[in-house]
């Protein structure tokens, strides 16, 4: 079971790292773009279908079009480049065509996996694409289009009859009407068959065409898998066309060819071209069927949409409809028909159709793949190398609706394409009009599509006046399930289950009438926990401030509900008065003695009776007498620290510019190593002393902590059967060994020294605790005294460096204390220096070490908030106390951004005043308040006194200000560290 769970957690970790691996791909290349969402990338609507996916493109386009020519985006985790400037779009489609000649899905299928689509020129690449395109190009010459025109006319007449018959029955659904029309046209021109779409309720070829374009499970998998693992395109080939549809069209082609050959029928249509092509190129029936289906798809779906949207716009714009009708009526023959040449020479009909194609392009975007590494211009003087295999996306929809290229883009205005204004040519040359693509891979069937749509429009507009029925929703909204390939069957079930799991708890706080922000899929309300864009302290702070007047806020860490308790009285309830109901830290059940023997023995990680026992064992180790007895050890380390600082000084200026955090970590490492293990850690003399490295090892578990947070917030129940390991095995063995060595040395040499190790020896004698237990206590002291104290010290020195007046006042206090103490400062003096105490208190307020303090509700509880409001807290709920945000709340601390030690002066009530109010708890509060607080404060005070007396502090230019907390650090430390200049005082 343990191995299974370990493998599961490892797998989850790998999946997360894999999904997030490319997130900085474009940032590293200095290409602007939106930050991607885990799994969903920048196009979540492809998967979620909560809105038309064109809106994802539009949002990105609107945000970045003025910033750069291109934007770096992600399709799931696959980096892609969104090219927004028409000039570059032309480069991709025409000028640099050879470098972007393949469509994105070229590698997704093969002739073996999908015999029909695998032969479609749209899916082919390289020489094979050229060959197939060359085969079908002659089928779209002007003479062949003209020869097909009578068949199109015949279907137009059938459509007219259909409209006449159904007009008395009420309004006609235009999308379906146009689909029936184009289905019959292409069926006649390709297979010489009457599809009977206008006469049969469910004509077979119409149903097969519908199924051919229906979304299916394989296509969903393609989007998901290719986006997540692009390399799969080369390994797994998808079948777009189901076998029954493949067989239907193959049989249809065979029967059509057999009938024509048997009856020696001559008809200049697409089938005639395929039969002649078969003789020249020895095409198989499957090859012919594939060509037929290619023509069928292109002519049926896109043409029906173009015709439908054109009719919609004409219905919305009666003036345009009247103008077009007049043009069409004037072009009619005496019998009411129109010939091919006349139809193609009607300028206003062209204008109307092109304007509809501009507003409603058949393809919302084009996607090409870079086949040869190419540089594209990001902005003036700045380029990016597009690597081979990177998809390049061209946002046709957004460009067509850009006011920079089309005045009043939302207005239907056919006159913009008038010959006097340059027609479509002026826009194509600019690269901003792309309804059929452009360049060598421009849609081959464009002329046929335009011809059939124009003939259909002629029939409708000359015979009927069209208007929008009240059943049509205005403004027109695209159906996300229609304009995106969407899943069915198992695909829907899989996505639905994942979605259900991720959102299952999202209504938790509404049930208990607790207000809070709306969570986002995968992120909840703490997105920085996953994205690492900033430190998650900023997420917590935003929640705190967005719900300023609420005593509590319900939010979600990924998918886990958590309660932020903001009201100071309720905070006191959680920490002190109602302690029994919140006795466990949120971390308490994450480790056990098997998974992490040392950390599991740390009282911070324990709960219940185990916590009480462990705390009782070490409480006597922190009495005032013991700390006083260890003060001289701090003096020794201070001497070594001062020598080290002086050695680092520059010979010219005498100033030492040092990373304060590293300096203070050396100091606290030496202090706690001496007090716990009775050894000199040699942090100031050796480059990388072993205990210093091991100290870093046990504290540098940020990645493990983040994985633990990730896994447990996704699925909290994991903690019931899997425990994490935070202290590496080599570090664990090291601390057990040095503890055993220290105990043996002290016993053998009969050394009596009133330090923490002495307390542990007495404890071992009385309670027969094991060496691992003793090492656990030692590491607890080491970890607590080394890391947090060094950060507090760093911030204290920084604040003093920033505030020279306060620094001088403290130096005067130190000198006065030394004078009254006969040249030295006693333990009692150190503990009672009021200004020093105020400085440390204010530093711990203005520089909190943690974003929040987390507790676990251990029993169903009802908190009573302001105005007797009852707030139910369910057992197991994580309760978060937002210490960082409270420290900067002007309601609790006037002018909170100002560094003002005086707010903690004795005459103002000291820190007790704020503790009593429930707004100051840097060491926690109540029964679980930090045991080592007094020791930590003494070692911090001792170092400050020594440094301030001997050095004038100022902030080095290496320090990046204002601070931005490092998202890679669990505790709050700024990016780049804190560098200070130490100038000796003469």
The count of DSSP E runs of length 2 or more, i.e. the number of strands, is: 17
Inertia-based shape? elongated
How large a portion of the residues is in β-strands, by DSSP E?
Answer: 5-15%
| Share of helical residues | 40-55%
What does this molecule look like?
The chain is 52% helix and 8% strand. It is an alpha+beta fold and 986 residues long. It has a five-stranded mixed beta sheet with strand order 1-2-7-4-3. A five-stranded mixed beta sheet has the order 8-9-15-12-10. Helix 27 packs parallel to helix 40 and helix 34 packs across helix 40. The protein is elongated, with a radius of gyration of 38 Å. The model is unreliable at 1-8 and 483-497 (pLDDT under 50).
Question: Layout of helices and strands, plus pairs?
Answer:
Elements: H1 2-20, H2 25-28, H3 45-48, H4 54-64, E1 70-75, E2 78-83, H5 86-95, E3 102-103, H6 126-136, H7 142-167, H8 174-191, H9 204-213, H10 217-228, H11 232-235, H12 243-262, H13 270-281, H14 285-316, H15 318-331, H16 340-344, H17 347-359, E4 366-369, E5 374-379, E6 382-386, E7 391-394, H18 396-400, H19 425-430, H20 446-463, H21 490-503, H22 508-511, H23 528-531, H24 537-546, E8 552-557, E9 560-565, H25 568-577, E10 584-585, H26 608-618, H27 624-648, E11 656-659, H28 660-677, H29 690-699, H30 702-714, H31 718-721, H32 729-748, H33 756-767, H34 771-802, H35 804-820, H36 827-832, H37 834-846, E12 853-856, E13 861-864, E14 870-873, E15 878-881, H38 883-887, H39 910-917, H40 933-950, E16 951-955, E17 979-984
């Amino acid at each position: 079971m343990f191995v299974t769970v370990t493998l599961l957690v490892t797998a989850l970790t790998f999946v997360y790292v894999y999904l997030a691996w490319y997130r900085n791909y474009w940032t590293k290349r200095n290409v602007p773009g939106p930050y991607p969402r885990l799994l969903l990338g920048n196009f979540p609507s492809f998967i979620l279908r909560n809105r038309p996916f064109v809106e994802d493109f539009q949002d990105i386009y609107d945000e970045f079009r003025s910033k750069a020519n291109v934007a770096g985006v992600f399709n799931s985790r696959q980096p892609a480049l969104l090219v927004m400037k028409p000039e570059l779009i032309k480069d991709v489609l025409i000028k640099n065509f050879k470098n972007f000649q393949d469509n994105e899905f070229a590698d997704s299928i093969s002739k073996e996996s999908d015999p029909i689509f695998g032969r479609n020129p749209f899916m082919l690449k390289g020489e094979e694409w050229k060959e197939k395109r060359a085969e079908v190009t002659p089928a779209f010459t002007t003479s062949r289009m003209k020869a097909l025109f009578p068949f199109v006319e015949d279907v137009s007449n059938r459509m007219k009859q259909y409209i006449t018959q159904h007009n008395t029955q009420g309004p006609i659904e235009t999308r379906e009407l146009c689909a029936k029309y184009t289905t019959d046209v292409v069926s006649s021109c390709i297979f010489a068959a009457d599809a009977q779409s206008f006469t049969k309720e469910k004509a077979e070829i119409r149903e097969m065409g519908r199924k051919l374009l229906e979304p299916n499970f394989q296509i969903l998998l393609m989007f998901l898998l290719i986006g997540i693992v692009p390399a799969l395109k080369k390994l797994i080939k998808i079948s777009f066309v189901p076998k029954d549809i493949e067989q239907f069209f193959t049989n249809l082609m065979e029967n059509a060819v057999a009938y024509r050959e048997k009856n020696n029928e001559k008809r200049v249509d697409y089938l005639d071209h395929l039969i002649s092509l078969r003789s020249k190129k020895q095409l198989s029936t499957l090859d012919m069927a594939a060509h037929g289906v290619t023509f069928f798809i292109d002519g049926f779906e896109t043409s029906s949409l173009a015709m439908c949207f054109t009719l919609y716009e004409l219905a919305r714009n009666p003036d345009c409809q009247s103008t077009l009708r007049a043009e069409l009526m004037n072009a009619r023959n005496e019998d009411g028909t129109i010939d091919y040449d006349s139809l193609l020479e009607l300028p206003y009909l062209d204008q109307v159709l092109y304007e509809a194609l501009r507003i409603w392009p058949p393809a919302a975007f084009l996607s090409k793949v870079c086949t040869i590494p190419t540089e594209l211009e990001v902005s003036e003087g700045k380029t990016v190398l597009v690597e081979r295999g990177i998809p390049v996306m061209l946002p046709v929809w957004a460009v067509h609706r850009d006011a920079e290229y089309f005045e009043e883009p939302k207005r239907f205005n056919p006159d913009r394409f008038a010959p006097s204004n340059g027609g479509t040519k002026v826009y194509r040359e600019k690269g901003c009009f792309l309804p059929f693509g452009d360049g060598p891979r421009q849609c081959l069937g464009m002329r046929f599509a335009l011809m059939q749509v124009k003939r259909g429009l002629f029939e409708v507009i000359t015979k009927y006046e069209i208007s929008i029925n009240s059943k049509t929703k205005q403004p027109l909204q695209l159906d996300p399930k229609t304009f995106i390939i969407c899943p069915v069957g198992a695909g829907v079930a899989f996505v639905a289950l994942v979605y259900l799991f991720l959102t299952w708890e999202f209504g938790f706080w509404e049930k208990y009438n607790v207000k809070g922000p709306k969570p986002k899929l995968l992120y909840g309300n703490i997105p920085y926990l996953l994205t690492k864009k900033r430190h998650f302290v900023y997420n917590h702070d935003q929640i705190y401030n967005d719900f300023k007047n609420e005593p509590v806020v319900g939010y979600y860490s990924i998918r886990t509900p958590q309660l932020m308790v903001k009201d100071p009285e309720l905070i006191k309830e959680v920490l002190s008065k109602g302690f029994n109901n919140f006795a466990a830290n949120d971390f308490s059940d994450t480790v056990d003695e098997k998974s992490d023997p040392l950390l599991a023995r740390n009282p911070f990680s324990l709960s219940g009776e185990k916590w009480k026992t462990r705390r009782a064992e070490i409480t006597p180790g922190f009495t005032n007498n013991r700390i006083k007895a260890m003060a001289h050890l701090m003096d020794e380390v201070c001497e070594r620290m001062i020598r080290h600082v002086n050695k680092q000084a520059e010979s010219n200026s005498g100033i030492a510019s040092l990373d304060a955090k590293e300096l203070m970590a050396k100091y606290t490492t030496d202090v706690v190593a001496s007090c716990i293990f009775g050894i000199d850690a040699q942090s100031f003399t050796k480059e990388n002393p072993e205990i210093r490295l091991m100290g870093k090892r046990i504290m540098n578990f940020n990645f493990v902590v983040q994985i633990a947070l990730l896994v447990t917030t996704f699925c909290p129940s994991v903690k019931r059967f899997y425990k994490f390991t935070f202290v590496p095995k080599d570090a664990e063995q090291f601390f057990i060994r040095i503890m055993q060595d220290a105990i043996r040395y002290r016993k053998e040499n009969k050394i009596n020294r009133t330090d923490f190790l002495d307390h542990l020896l007495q404890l071992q004698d009385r309670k027969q605790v094991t060496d691992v237990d003793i090492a656990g206590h030692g590491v607890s002291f080491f970890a607590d005294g080394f890391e947090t104290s060094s950060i507090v010290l760093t911030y204290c020195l920084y604040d003093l460096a920033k505030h020279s007046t306060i620094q001088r006042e403290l130096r005067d206090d130190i000198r006065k204390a030394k004078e009254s103490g006969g040249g030295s400062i006693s333990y009692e003096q150190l503990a009672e220096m009021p200004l020093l105490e105020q400085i440390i208190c204010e530093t711990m307020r203005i520089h909190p070490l943690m974003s929040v303090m987390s507790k676990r509700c251990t029993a169903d509880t009802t908190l009573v908030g302001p105005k007797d409001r009852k707030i139910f807290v369910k057992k197991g709920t994580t309760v978060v106390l937002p210490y960082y945000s409270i420290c900067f709340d002007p309601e609790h601390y006037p002018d909170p951004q100002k560094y003002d030690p005086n707010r903690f002066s004795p005459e103002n009530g000291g820190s007790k005043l704020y503790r009593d109010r429930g707004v100051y708890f840097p060491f926690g509060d109540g029964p679980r308040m930090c045991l080592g607080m007094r020791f930590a404060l003494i070692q911090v005070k001792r170092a400050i006194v020594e440094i301030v007396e001997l050095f004038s502090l100022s902030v080095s230019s290496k320090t990046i200000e204002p601070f931005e907390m490092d998202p890679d650090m669990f505790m709050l430390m700024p990016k780049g560290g804190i560098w200070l200049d130490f100038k000796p005082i003469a």
